[in-house]
Amino acid sequence: MIHTASVDLRYWGEAFMYAVHIRRLILTISLSGRVPYEAWTRRKPDVSYLCIFGSLGWAHVPEEVRRGKLESRAVKVCMLGW
Q: How many structural domains does the chain have?
């Protein structure tokens, strides 16, 4: 995931935690076609919040942080998780 997203190796912890989270949402044979989350809570998991690791996005900069009227209102960020 780190090499595919072309992010720095210092983010290996975030990549590991995201991989573990995704692994918990994958069907398993031992649970007869259910995911571990579903076996534990008896509800189907909502995966609409997942995004591609390392995808680009924009984060809003609040007015309190901006220095003036012409300053940028958003900064480019790299999504490292959910």
A: 1
Q: How far is CA 50 from CA 44, 65, 70, in A?
A: 15, 29, 34
Domain of residue 20: give its range: 2-78
Task: Report the alpha-carbon distance of residue 35 to residue 23 in Å, rounded.
Answer: 9
pTM of structure: 0.69
In which residue are the tokens 């190796």 written?
Answer: 9
Segment 17-38 mean pLDDT:
84
What distances in angstroms separate CA 69 from CA 15, 63, 73, one per listed residue? 37, 9, 9
Is residue 77 helix, strand or coil?
A: strand
